[in-house]
Amino acid sequence: MMGGLNDKEINNTFVKVISQMPYFRLSGGRNHIFVFPSGAGAHLFKSWATYINRSIILTPEVNFYFSS
What we know:
This protein is mainly α. It contains four helices and two strands; from the N terminus they run H-H-E-H-H-E.
């Protein structure tokens, strides 16, 4: 958005970073936690099921609207 990375570039960046994580490779990701706010993980990281399927994935929902 707003001049940032497109979907393919975001996915490729995740894959590149994960491939450079030596401890991730040792455990297959089982001892890693990924946080994707508002359930955005599957939309931001299209290959998540291939690369982080053994990791813990948190998808917190946030409510920014408060009534007074």
